[in-house]
UniProtKB/TrEMBL annotation, chain A:
It comes from Marinomonas foliarum. This is Glycine betaine/proline transport system ATP-binding protein. It holds the Pfam family ABC_tran. Residues 21-268 form the ABC transporter domain. Keywords: ATP-binding, Nucleotide-binding, Transport. It comes from the Bacteria. GO terms for biological process: response to osmotic stress. Belongs to the ABC transporter superfamily. One of its GO terms (cellular component) is ATP-binding cassette (ABC) transporter complex, substrate-binding subunit-containing. InterPro entries: AAA+_ATPase, ABC_osmolyte_uptake_ATP-bind, ABC_transporter-like_ATP-bd, ABC_transporter-like_CS, ABC_trnsptr_Choline_ATP-bd, P-loop_NTPase. GO terms for molecular function: ATP binding; ATP hydrolysis activity; choline transmembrane transporter activity.
Automatic annotation (TrEMBL), chain B:
It is found in: Cell membrane. It comes from the Bacteria. GO terms for molecular function: amine transmembrane transporter activity; carnitine transmembrane transporter activity. Gene3D superfamilies: MetI-like. It holds the Pfam family BPD_transp_1. Its main location: membrane. The chain crosses the membrane at residues 21-44, 50-67, 74-91, 97-120, 141-169, 212-233, 245-268. The keyword ATP-binding does not apply. This is Glycine betaine/proline transport system permease protein. Residues 93-272 form the ABC transmembrane type-1 domain.
Length: 396, 281
């Protein structure tokens, strides 16, 4: 169910929108339009649908329009054209056209926000900062402080409740920022590069905390980031923006496997693909393996036998190699040596590499009880190098 | 050259006509303002004079203790006030303090809202800036003349002149404070559902408060510096003995009155400084 729907949204900064919009339609570039009308095109023809429980990451370099688009969702940026719908109960409200009262209702009850530079009020205590939005909801003082205190416990900062923000470290401050947004109990959370200003270790820790919180609370999150690793880690959907346009919108794995343009490819080249890729995307499918005497030939000295699509045995040069089944519940460090493991087809590549490290043999992928392919060393090297992930080449 | 001097533009005459017109058109209004302010200040001075000086000092010390909790400041304030009593300027000091505090209070009441309005409307500040410059650079003696005509002798022309001179400080610093509130705080306020007035009271004013307080302190100091000048139009206070000493070339009276003014200035400055700004240096 869509919670946020962005339809054909254009955002323009400047006073000559009447001239700028037709120029945009004629396909003039951002720079040309800036030269002709003096207006800055923030976002051009953006379309995204974010469903309940999804984390949609807007990815791009600075100036690509990702923060601008994010700010349209709670009406901080005005939309020149198009619609930005946010769910309110069983209706969808257009944030661009609703009146002041409705906008305030949406901001206090439906959409809350986390900022890159934390944006905590320096004259308020940590507790009062968390309660700030509740005060705007009109909640009585005792009740809102009580609620804020509970929320602070969730981010383990209850001991710091009476300190001022400048007495906290960066990571703690952003936890306060998260608490301030989560305490509002809104369905939609907007996060504008919330972890970019933090040290790498703290950043990854807060990413994990966010993923944990999201598992419990199931919010709809729109997350802005300039870091593809972060996007791949937390996003269930990624929209990549370049100079005011969305150039690719896809699941994380698809972004890595099939980058739409060179720009996306450059991003992908700098990420660690093991975190997102699944076994089935990189496997050598069964159909590509040679068959000889009813045996499937994997390499010069290893072959395997199937019966009704199920693996029955694997033969090595020194006789049969034992097989075993791995499920996500098994602790990988405990898997036995010199064994061929049968694993689910959607296994994370990181797990697959680790199993291969312990078992010293190829992995067989199974889906719905049927063997569909294998992961051998060639596939692993391919994933590690991450040069190009066209499906055909992976199969070769 | 002769042509230039012969064809004098009657700038002064225009101003005089304007003031004359004000007097004839709105004398009732100015008399009313004058009477109200004069009564207010005289009553305040009388009320404080009615108390024993040591009782007043005790009240001031309690206030200072609650604001700063600093022993050294308490000792300094006590010694200064006792020295003033010893020199025989207690009543003049009270009159000066009442004048300074009234002028500051009115400057802040008028100046802070103007500063906020200017911060929200750039065009307004463009208009205001030259006016503020003018108010601060015209020698203060010059606008004593029209205020004297409009409000008569006494505290009120001194008070009005002081306000004209000192109001620029709270306007400028409020403008500065409100217009440089970090954009992200404004965005956070709006994103969490502030209305325009909530944004002002819950975000902009608290964020601008250090600047506004600096404006108030400056305003107090500027008001105090006007005190001597205000004595020329009949405002009672520490300025009177200074003017009298000047007219009679009395070195000792002039020095003692001068010391009293300096002590009042240092006390006001130390008391007005907020404890937090002291920490920041």
């Amino acid at each position: 169910m869509a919670v946020v729907t962005i339809e054909n949204v254009d955002i323009v900064f400047g006073d000559n929108k009447a001239k700028t919009l037709p120029l945009m339609d004629k396909g003039h570039s951002r720079d040309e339009i800036l030269g002709i009308t003096g207006d800055v095109v923030g976002v051009q023809n953006a379309n995204i649908e974010v469903n309940e429980g999804e984390i949609c990451v807007l990815m791009g370099l600075s100036g690509s329009g990702k923060s601008t688009l994010l700010r349209a969702v709670n009406g901080l940026n005005k939309i020149a054209r198009g619609r930005c719908l946010v769910r309110d109960g069983d209706k969808m409200v257009d944030m661009a056209k609703c009146d002041e009262t409705k906008l305030r209702h949406m901001r206090t009850h439906r959409v809350s926000m986390v900022f890159q530079s934390f944006a905590l009020m320096p004259w308020l205590t940590v507790l009062e900062n968390v309660a700030f939005g509740l005060e705007m909801q009109g909640m009585p003082k005792a009740e809102r402080l009580e609620k804020a205190r509970e929320q602070l416990k969730m981010v383990s900062l209850d001991k710091w409740a009476d300190k001022k923000p400048d007495e906290l470290s960066g990571g703690m401050r952003q936890r306060v920022g998260l608490a301030r947004a989560f305490v509002m109990d809104t369905d939609v959370l907007l996060m504008d590069e919330p972890f970019s200003a933090l040290d790498p270790l703290i950043r990854s820790q807060l990413q994990d905390e966010l993923i944990e919180l999201q598992k419990r609370l199931n919010k709809t999150i729109i997350f802005v980031s300039h870091d593809l690793d972060e996007a791949l880690k937390i996003g269930s959907k990624i929209a990549i923006m370049e100079s005011a346009r969305i150039i690719q919108e896809d699941a994380p794995e698809q972004i890595v496997l099939n980058p739409a343009t060179e720009y996306v490819e450059r991003f992908v080249a700098h990420t660690n693909p093991l975190n997102v890729l699944r076994g089935q995307s990189l496997m050598t499918p069964l159909a590509d393996l040679a068959v000889k005497d009813g045996k499937i030939i994997i390499s010069d000295d290893i072959s395997m036998t199937l019966e009704n699509g199920k693996l029955t045995s694997v033969q090595g040069s020194q006789g049969e190699i034992p097989t075993a089944r791995w499920t996500p519940e098994t602790i990988i460090a405990n898997v036995s040596d010199n064994t061929v493991f049968i694993v689910p087809a959607n296994i994370a590549m990181r797990d697959a590499v680790e199993i291969r490290y312990h078992s010293n043999h190829l992995l067989v992928l199974e889906e719905a009880g049927q063997c569909i392919g294998i992961l051998n060393d060639h596939n692993f090297y391919h994933a590690l190098l991450g040069k190009h992930f066209g499906r055909e080449e992976a199969a070769a | 050259m002769n042509w230039l001097t012969d064809n004098k533009i009657p700038l002064g005459a225009w101003m005089e006509n304007f003031v004359d017109w004000l007097v004839s058109a709105a004398s009732v209004f100015f008399d009313l303002v004058s009477l109200t302010l004069e009564t207010m200040i005289v009553n305040m001075v009388d009320a404080i004079e009615y108390l024993h000086p040591l009782a007043v000092i005790a009240i001031i010390l309690v206030g200072v203790w609650f604001l700063h909790r600093s022993i050294s400041l308490i000792i300094f304030v006590t010694l200064s006030l006792l020295l003033i009593i010893n020199m025989g300027y207690w009543i003049e000091t009270i009159q000066t303090l009442v004048l300074v505090i009234s002028a500051t209070a009115m400057s802040v009441l008028i100046g802070v809202p103007i500063g906020i309005a200017a911060a929200h409307r750039p065009w307004l500040y463009t208009i205001l800036r030259p006016v503020l410059d003018l108010m601060q650079t015209i020698p203060t003696f010059v606008y004593l003349i029209p205020t004297l005509i409009l409000f008569g002798l006494g505290y009120v022309p001194g008070l009005i002149s002081t306000i004209i001179f000192a109001i620029a400080a709270p306007i400028r610093l409020t403008y500065l404070g409100v217009s440089k509130v970090p954009n992200e705080l404004i965005e956070a306020g709006l994103a969490f559902g502030c209305t325009k007035s909530k944004l002002l009271y819950k975000v902009e004013l608290p964020a601008a408060m250090p600047n506004i307080m600096a404006g108030v302190t400056q305003c107090i100091m500027l008001s105090l510096s006007m005190v001597v000048v205000a004595a020329l139009v009949g405002a009672d206070g520490l300025g009177k003995p200074v003017v009298r000493a000047l007219n009679t070339v009395n070195i000792s009276q002039g020095f003692e009155a001068g010391v009293a003014i300096v002590l009042v200035a240092i006390m006001l400055d130390r008391i007005c400084k907020s404890p937090s700004s002291k920490n920041e240096g």
